[in-house]
């Protein structure tokens, strides 16, 4: 459970930092993406037309994002634990990572790009890559022996 919390927090933090840097590089407030997604998620696509940097949508969206990251982190930690006990489950864990990553891209993309028109696809893809990469790197670092054991079993 603790590993899942850490994995979720690390993935969430990576997205926050990467998107803040991306927003700053584009000349926008570092809170722009969170404000935009919060407005679209909680007030609908029309809210994007009158986007302001109010704390309510920023905090609400970050809360949803953090909870989703922790939930995925806990499921990922469970899958890693089970894979340590039964190695062939690594394939299921990999497929779940891919499916969750694609789902996140589609969900955020549809909300932010297609419905709200407040984000571009580059922002969505960079954020999803930061999220998946950070969580994957954390679990690989914590379970280096598992990765090596899977690699050896696949080679045989």
Question: What can you tell me about this protein's structure?
Answer:
Helix 2 crosses helix 3 (55-85). 30% of the residues are buried. The longest helix is centred in the middle third of the chain and has 31 residues, at 55-85. Helix content is 81%, strand content 0%. The chain has six helices and no strands. It has one domain. The radius of gyration is 17 Å and the shape is elongated. With 156 residues, the chain is an all-alpha fold.
Give a summary of the structure in a few sentences:
With 156 residues, the chain is mainly α.
Which descriptors apply to this entry?
156 residues; mainly alpha; 6 helices; 0% strand
What does the secondary structure layout of this molecule look like, with pairings?
Blueprint: H1 2-25, H2 32-43, H3 55-85, H4 90-115, H5 121-142, H6 144-155
Helix pairs in contact: 1-3, 1-5, 2-3, 2-4, 3-4, 4-5
Determine the fraction of residues in helical runs and give it as a percent range. over 70%
Judged by helices, strands and strand pairing, the structural class is mainly alpha
**Tally of DSSP β-strands:** 0
Q: Which residues form runs of ≥5 with pLDDT under 50? A: none
């Amino acid at each position: 459970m603790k590993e899942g919390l850490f994995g979720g927090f690390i993935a969430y933090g990576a997205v926050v930092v990467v998107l803040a840097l991306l927003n700053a590089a584009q000349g926008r407030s570092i809170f722009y993406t969170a404000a935009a997604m919060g407005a679209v998620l909680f007030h609908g696509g029309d809210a994007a037309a009158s986007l302001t940097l109010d704390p309510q949508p920023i905090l609400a969206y970050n809360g949803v994002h953090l909870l989703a990251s922790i939930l995925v982190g806990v499921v990922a930690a469970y899958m890693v634990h089970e894979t340590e006990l039964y190695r062939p489950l690594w394939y299921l864990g990999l497929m779940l990572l891919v499916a969750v990553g694609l789902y996140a891209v589609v969900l955020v993309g549809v909300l932010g790009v297609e419905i709200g028109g407040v984000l571009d696809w580059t922002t969505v893809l960079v954020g999803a890559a930061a999220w998946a990469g950070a969580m994957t790197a954390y679990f690989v670092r914590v379970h280096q022996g598992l990765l090596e054991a899977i690699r050896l079993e696949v080679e045989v």
